[in-house]
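Exam revision sheet. Question 4 asks you to relate a sequence to its structure. Input first:
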Amino acid sequence: MTHIVSESCIRCKYTDCVDVCPVDCFREGPNMLVIDPDECIDCAVCIPECPVNAIYAEEDVPADQLQFIKINAELSRAAGWKSITKRKAALPDADEWKDKTDKLSELVR
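Answer key, structure tokens:
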């Protein structure tokens, strides 16, 4: 099993989670993070670090977020989605987006 980053991360991109990851499995895109399923060791230390509760164990992904299992796998291998290993500032308008839902159309691939 692996963990995934869900829709809540879109347009927020808080990076608290990357500081605690022991295997550097996070990948950074323009406005979201994803987890590389081949690198994740299922340790779960990232889950409580996410301020928008965007990270789930694969078996706990809510039904309305299941498409993010595939999205994480695809984007973790996409050109331009590079490994992120150190915390950095969230997106400038992250606080405005953190409580919004239905953000998939906002994802920049």
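Marking note for examiners. The CA atoms of residues 12 and 95 lie 7 Å apart.
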